[in-house]
Every structure is written in C-alpha cells, then in structure tokens.
Records
---
Amino acid sequence: MARLYLDGGVSIKKLQEILDEIDYPVLMEIVDNIWLRDDYSSFCWNTDDNLDDLENGDGNTYSVETFEGFSEYDGYVVVNAHNGCGQTITYFFNKEKEIKI
C-alpha cells in the first residue's frame, strides 16, 4: 500500500486533482462543505451545506469518529477515522467551512 506524506510539497488543491484522476476507490476524502466537531473525536459535515440539518444530524449529514487525534495542514484539519464499515479513511476538512457552536 502506498503512503502519502504531506511535507509541504503537495497542496490540498493538487491532492484533489490527483484524487479526481484516480479511477479506483481511494481511502481519502476532502470535505469542502460545512462541518463541525462536537468534541475532539467526532466530526460531522453536511454535503448540502445546510446548517439546520448539520446541527440536527438530518438530511445529507455524515459523521465519523477519529481514533488518532487530528492535525492541521494547508488550511485543513486532517483526521484518520473509521467509516463504519471497518475501513480507515483520511479526511481533510476545510478550516474555512468549520461551524463553531
């Protein structure tokens, strides 16, 4: 399995371009929708950018629980989380879209 190390040489924009070109499932997702963290281990986002649905967990709201904490890189919060199906996915949450409650 290949590993990607973000050491300042790859921007998130370039990473998205690479992911868009790959025609098989990659266990990485860039979230450019509104999101919040309800504690330090749970992240929620809404793909319709609907704040009411995000706050109530309705509509197209999704959530993951992290297990290794998180870090910040290039304007994104980066977390490894379980997707509920036994897989670990790396998520990049756009800091500009964070909702603070």
---
Amino acid sequence: MTVEWLTAVEQLRRERRPGVLVTLTSVRGHSPREAGAKMVVGVGATWGSIGGGNLEATAVARARQLITDAAPAPEQLSLSLNDKAPAQHGQQCCGGEVQVLLEPLAVVPAVAIFGVGHVGLELARILARHDLELHLVDSRADQLGRERLGVLDDATARVHVHHAPVPELVLGQVPHGTHVLVMTHDHAEDAALCDGALRCEHLGSIGLIGSSAKWSRFRQRLAAEGHSDADLARIKTPIGLADLAGKDPARCVAAGLVQVPEGRRIFTRLTVEENLRAGGLGQKDKTVKAKAHERVLDLFPVLAERRHARAGLLSGGEQQMLAIGRGLMAGPRLLLLDEPSLGLAPQVIGQIGEVIREINTQGTAVMLVEQNATMALAVADTAFVLDVGRVSLSGSAAELARTDAVQRLYLGAGADGSDPSTTRPPRTTRTLARWSQ
C-alpha cells in the first residue's frame, strides 16, 4: 500500500494535477486501519485506503473540497466511529476515535530559462532552492555541461536540461502554465523565442531580459509577424523591478536596495540622530520615515539613549549599529551588509547577528558578505562560500555549519579535502609598498 500512495503522489506531480494526501495520524480504540495509514485523493480518483466506510468517504469529500478551494494549508479532522456519531456516508461501529490529516498537494510552478549563461545560471541557482519544475534550455551544449550545472546537485527543484539547437521547439514541450524567461546570448534567438512563445497558448508569463531599446526593436519585428498589441503585452520586459531604471547608486536606493558599507563610514561629526536623518533623506513619505525611525530605535535601544551624542564618540559596536540603522531608515527591500563584524568584540558580534536575523524576520531581505563564517552561517538561510572569486560551496547555511568543509577551505584545503595548489592556477599578488618595507 505504501508504494501505491507514493506512486500516486508522483503521478499527480508528473501530470500536474492537484491532490490531497490523507493520513490517519492517531487512533483511540478500534479502527479499520492503524495510525500511519495513508491514501491520496485526486479530482476523479483515489489511491490507497484509510479504512473505508464513513471515515474514508468523509475524508475524500473534504479532500476534494480542499482541491476545489485551492486551499494551501493542511487541515485536521476528528471522527468518531460509533453508531451515535453523525454519519453522512453510513455508520461505522468500530468504537474508536481517529484524527485525520489532509495535506493539499498543489501543482508546483514550472519555470523555463532559455539561455543558461552567467545570468541564467545564477537565476537557476536561486530558483533551484524552491519546489518547482525547472527547465534549463540552451542551444550551446557547453553551457549545459556537468561541470557548470554541478552547482545544482543539491537542488530542491526538479531540474530538466534541454540541449536544443532550435530552442523554440522546447516551448511546445514544457508543461501547461510554465513561466518562460528569455535570456539567451543571441538577440535573433531571443526574438524567435518571443515569437514562438506568443504563439503558445499554454504558457504562463513571458519575461525578456534586455533594454528598452532592444524591446522597441523586438516590438516592431513581432508586430510585423502579425502579433497584436494585446499579444505583445504578454511579454514583460525588462525583467526585474520596474522602478529600477539604472544601476547608479541613487537609482538603486530609490528602488529599495541599500548598502551598509564595510568599515561603517558613519558621519562622525554628526549626532546619532542626524546620521539617522541622513539615512532617510531619500524617503519622501513622512509616515514611512517615522515608522522606520521607530523601528531602528526599537532594534537598537542604545541609539535611543545616545541619540544626541556625536557619532564619533560611540564604541565600535555602537557605530556598527548606527550604520545598520542608517541603512534601515531608507526602508530597503534588500539590505546589503558588508563585513558588519569587522573589528568588533565576540560578544558584540553575537548581538549584531541577532539583530540581522530580526531584521530579516521583520520582512527585509538581507544579503550578508562576511568573513566570520561562524556568525554568517548562524544567521543566514542560504550560504555561498567564495574561494578566489569562485563559488566553492553553496547550500543551506545550517547544513554547511554542520560539516567541516568550510573550515577546510579557510585552512587552505579544498572543500573535498584536496590540496588547492594542485587545481588552482598560479597567481601573482601585488603587495602595497608600505607593507613590503
């Protein structure tokens, strides 16, 4: 029976059909099945059994209602198996009481990345950490080699690799509702994919990487192929934040990306309060600014106590708190932290780590660049370990913290314990004159 329900879960996923996994979680007294019995309920079929009768019929009816409602959360049912209990599908007189858990099996999203270059691969690494069907398509075989795609070995997603000299053909092979991202190395290939995607009614969203000038040319070409304005509106370009119109720092901050630089770089001659106000200069909404100010003082009570003190008179830890607080005053979507533990005492590093975790818990995404591996792995969800500019390790921060792979890299050995000097090309290092004297 175990094989049957497992096979059913796999079948529903493969066929992209919703279902519900039903589990008998506890039994008091007598029941047709013991605790742990499972079955799978689909729209028009069931697999396995939790005991038949009113018990099973009630669970099946409720499971199908969850499917109809597209309910995302699990639900628990309590049922009595005696002749006095309410029963819509006949009486069961086993005399016991049971708890039934219903877990919705949603159709997982599907994403197809056309073009697995530098950007495509990094995007694949991010998406691969989610439960979805990930299709990687490229006309260049070398971009899909084992060495490049090995970084996806720990993927949560199911990764499907397509080497296609004519990538447009894959559009007809991906599942219904697949979200398509077009980012190949060739504008002609991009244009052909956009044309093909617009002719496929089964696809979800369509995204195209590139500038507004590129899209202007594509619009003309696609219109000449017979696509209407409504068709062209299906393509989202450029991919990303619509209000991020450039890469200069001012535009990035306006779009919600804020960096807290290495070395703090606070305004030492200004007060704590004046530093915080400087961080919020780009925020025009007074209500949002006031809430950000309240949030900072709540996260860092010491800044409230010393708000009128000159920032240069603060301790190193307090200055780092001020630097982070100043960054939060802009109300960022993404907070970039560069070496926040630099030069701080261990106790203070622990406090900073706790605050970083709290900032993330409150809803702000955080990207942390940090050489203190212990602190970084303690606060992060996902970690990437760089060795001479290359990603040597990646995965769950908790999993990396449980292994000694990071320690081996720090001590000069490869992640697999090998001597890096045998695999790393020789390099020369420039030395500052004042250090060589």
---
Amino acid sequence: MAGGAFRPSVLSMRKTFPVIWSLHGETHTGKLDVTKERIELTSRGYTFAFPRDSVIHFVVERSAEARIRGLTSIKIRLVGEHVVRIASLGGAGSLHEISALLTSEGRIEPLRHGLAGAGT
C-alpha cells in the first residue's frame, strides 16, 4: 500500500447524533448533523441550521438548572445572540465528541469554551 494514501478527515464526513435540543424556550427531540461547513438540528417538523463559524462560544453546563430533561447540556452562543442548548441521547462520550466538533478548522482565533462553574 502506498504511504501517501488519502484518508478523509473527520470533518469531511457527516457526523450524526441523537439529541434533545432547545431554542427560544422550545425543546425538541431529534438529531444533530455536523459537517465541515454547518451544524443542523432536526426534529419532527422543525429544522435549525447554522454555519459552524457562527459559533462564538460554547460551554458544557453541568448544573441541575441548566440540564435538559436531566441531561448535561452544551450551551452554544451564536453570532446574532441566538443561544442553542444540546443534550446528547448517546451518552457522555458523545457529548464530548459534539463539544470537540464545535471547534471549527481554520479559525484565526481559538473558540472560547469551557465548563460552566469551573472557572473557565
């Protein structure tokens, strides 16, 4: 096998996760699709999508009042002051994978993120 074989990066592939998500006070059960260019949240009869580079900040929220249906959530702040919260139905490992995917490739400045209440 040739040493320079092409391997697609993780971000060149679509990643899908089962999630519960909240936007403007409404909670939806559905899926999260992450591609190199965009993030799309879909539920029965509703879709919210945004470019990956519109994420200006995210934080993993672990407090009881920040949870969605008892699950740890990620609070995502977007350009234009929209705030989306996502909780993974796939377990803690997938929540961390989603968190890692929120950081876009090619950013000039690093994306601010952290753990709520952890002094970050």
---
Amino acid sequence: MTATTTPPRRPSPGERRARRERLATWITISVVLVICAAAGLGAYAMSNSWWVQEAPRPAADQQLADGQSRFDRAGIDFFNRQRLATVDVVDPAPASDLGLPPDGDTPIETLVPLTVDVRGAQSVLTFSGVSSFALTTSGDRLAALTVTPAASSTWIAIRDDLEQRSAEWGWSPSDLEDLERKVGEAGREEGVAQTMALPAASVDGMTGTARVTVDAAGRISLQYVFTP
C-alpha cells in the first residue's frame, strides 16, 4: 500500500493580505520608534548645547580673550549665535589667530543679519543689520575690512547713511553731490558695472572710505572699507 502525503495548505488571499498588513504595521512602528529615539537624542544634545544657552561663554576656538571674533567654522558659528562680530582694525591679532589665511580675501555671509563692531583706536563703530562683510589679509595681518551695511539697496537709503556719517568722516556737501551725480550717470549706462568712492578719511586711527557700486544690471550697493 502506497503512503500518500498531504501537501501543505496554501494561505488564502485574505490570509496573505492580513500577513502583509501586519508586517507593514510592524515596519511602520519600528521606523517611528527610530525617528522618536533620534529626535529625543537630538533634543537632549541641543538642550546641553551652547546654541541654546542665554549667555554662552566663548571657547578659545570661538573668540579671542579680548573679544575679537574668529572667522573659522567655530568662530563663525559663535558670532552668528551671538549676532555680533567684532573686528579690531587698529590693533588686530595675527590672521592665523583669527582663523584667517595669511594672505587672501575671506567673504562672510551671515546666517542672520547681525551687528559688526569695528574697533578703532579709542572707540567702536557699530553697523547693525549686516548680512555680509569681508576681510582681506596680507602677511598674516588684517589689511582691510569691508562692511556692507543694511542701508545698501536703494540710493535714498545709501545717501541718508552717508549724510549721517559725513560730519564725522569729513565729507562735504559737494563730495556727496559729486557722488550722486556719478551714481546717476552710472545708472544710465546699461550693461557696465562701475564703482565710485568718496574721499578717504581718517576715522579713529583707521583709514575709512565709502564705495558705491552700480552693477551691470543697475543694482546699487554700498560698502565701507577700513584699513589700519
């Protein structure tokens, strides 16, 4: 007598569908648990980070002991968090101590508009709402600081800013009138970028000037340039 073997029962379509749904549910739950765990770890790490401290003390790689800002990654993160960058033009630290290359240009684009304090011999010039500035180094020393102020989008705003500084910087009404005439002429020459500057002035131990640029598309911008 020959023995017979009963083949295993195949699951019905409904059973297979139910099993797939259970598997999908477990996968979804697992993914959610992993995400929640990662979020929890991130929140814990953030709660212990200087980014959320009310008045964090800078580390040596974030800021010099005398308050000068550093411009490598750690320093940039710190002054973006503080919304304040400090540059000493008259007596700067060596470029290497500031996180800058010994020679070259270092443009800075800030995460948020912030204040740039420019240290002179006796006082500080403050520029608020700055979104970009640049540092030029030569021979491991700061050679120039260029600040693009908040008033740098329309000629009316630029002119008002220049007029407010004219008495301190020694610019005469005729200097400003001559600049306005040149800006108007540059704006009418389409497709040609031009830069005009006011006379250099001695400002608290620094040499400072203002440059107005009209680019090829007719956009206008203002930069203040400081040199030791």
